[in-house]
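Take one protein record:
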Amino acid sequence: MIGIGAMIGAGVFALTGFAAGLAGPALLLAFLLNGIIAAFTAASYAELGAAFPEAGGAYSWVREALPSPYGFYTGWANWFAQAVTCALYAATFGSFFVTLVTEYSDIGLEFAVLGFLTPEKIITALVVILFGYINYRGAEETGSIGVIVTSIKIVILAVFVIFGVIATLGHADWAANYTSVSEFAPNGVTGVLGAMGFVYVAFEGYDIIVQSGEEIKNPGRNIPRAIFYSLLVAVPIYLFVSFAAIGGIDVTPRLLEFAGMEGASTSIETWKLLGDLGELGIIRAAAQFVPFGFFLLIIAGLAATVSALNATLFASSRIAFSMSRDRLLPTELSELSEETRSPYLSIIASTTIVGIMAIALPIEIVASSSAVMFLLLFSMVNVAAIAMRRNRPDLERPFKIPYMPVIPILGIVFQLILAPFLLESQGLAIGFGEESKGFVALVTIVLWFALGVVVYLGYSSEREEEVLEEETPTVVAERATESRDSQLLVPIADPESAEQLMRAAVDVARERDAEIHVISVVTVAPQTPLAEGRQHVGERRELLSRAIAIGEEGGVPTQGTVRLGHDPATAIINTVEQYDSDTVLMGWHGQGRRRRDIVLGSNVDDVVRDARCDVLVERIGEPGDVESILVPTAGGPHAEYAAEVAGSIARANDAHVEIAYVVGSDADSDARTEAEELLAQAAESVGEHDSISSQLLDGDDVVEEIVDRSGGHDLTIVGATRESLLQQLVFGAIPEEVARRADGTIIMAKRNLGITGWVRRYLGFGG
């Protein structure tokens, strides 16, 4: 939905009319060919995004793959590309807003302050300032809101397409647009290529997808899928919208007036009319053949521009922040506000660029500048993909580009072909008139790169080597050379409990012939870029190094990773999925119940509920040798799992295992016989061990009996209860109460039952 929202964003509303004026009915061919060319670069984004799931995208990849100064200039181009695209959305919002007001009111909005500040420009300036402030406050659009906005846009565009196709087919001569070359492509190949370049910015969605890589679950699988699924959805929508817009409208004097063509013949081709209507093309078209079409489309357009404006301004400021943090731009740009923890100077710099571009230049020039910058940026990503295959041949690549290097080379060639045709289609006459828009866009791009050369030679080049020497990696270098099929994941945050947690991990992993993966999560505030957490990686490296040493002393292959995340539970769950971990062992200090919806603590609760693996939660007690283990049981897979874990720890420590079952004081002989059978099953789950005993406990309070019995043991291991999820929160009432009230160390065990077990427990059929 992130990718589709960016591709089917403000571009479809703002650019379709302009592009129709360039290509004619061949706009359909332009969008189809763009989809094919975009797929070539999408393959490079998929391979690099899956291999490097972190914020930074093209800038980070080029820095990794190519020598300086390519990384700097890619980041410089990316910063400007996002800022100019944001200016396009802001200018489109200003135009839409003023059009909406004038359509439904008698307010006169035909004036200009200082000769150039029209109402559209004033609204544009205000909305840029507003979203600059919103980004400063840290109110980034949430994923759920983005999904809603995207869904609304798609529904409204679907309505537009349905009524547009009906209107098109109602015209007796509709097929004439597509039956001869002169009618289909009235401006020839040049017009088609110019339109392709003009609307190519619509495919920047996969750049937004990879910018979210650090927050995506299983990025090796989901980033490539998201990229290609977005293309598969976006391209047909553009094709249908173009077909409906070109074929569905009737040329009327009123539409000619809106297009500034008063007195022109109503026999003019519809594609020419759309071109002159510009950013209002499909909105004016919708007013003709869709019930309430003008209102629906302009509201959708306003929502799309607001959503896209917020996202691109956020992305632009974060690129400047990243380059500043890497000292390729002045370090002041990476300063964070003490109040909001946002990179306020980067936001101010990006907002200023956006405002100047949006106010000073017409929409066509802004769109052309943005499109050319993205064509250059995407070409550099393809170069990086080729270079990375050579420089990093052993890099783990969950997705690989087929027919390497043919696919990325095709992407480079076709994208570089589109850029000059795009500029030529806008006019390359020297000056600042209607025939010079391409020239002005080219001058704007050249001036930006000239400024980049000055910044690089005067500031960045001297600091680039320092960055390469001092940059702190986010992955701990120490790692066991041996790797095993099974993995036990151990999140560690507290140095005081790390040793006790690792001792238990070693006992369990050694018994199962598994490796240990220790992680520590550096938590970053939600409104702060994740990379800001790098400054704390050094502290966590030391903690993980000690944990890794314990694992290796126990003869278990151990690796360690520092992860950056806005939410520790999400980072842990993502790690489980990324590394296909079999078990998670977490520590807990006994807090909880501060809120009714929190049992053990929000992070522990989320991992226990959502991790698709076995889960062990150890309530940390006093350190010491494990000589005696209590295993309360009531049957079921969780109790069996608890007994298995007890057996692993008991054999490692030569400890005695006592299995206990609590029956009511008035239990009959049948209930006691069943209890004895469950004790025998639990003993069998413990496995071969010299010291096992079973105990039938009489009592009406199960928790009280287990708590009393645990006082005579060093460790108690209890499985989750078999209550339905409607009744239990995490492990179930009994294990959670035992863990709170019992002395010593407690381990709560929960086996991963898969979807079938989840449904059974939810319906109350037991675990």
Remarks:
- Residues 514 and 664 are 40 Å apart (CA to CA).
- The longest strand covers residues 515-523.
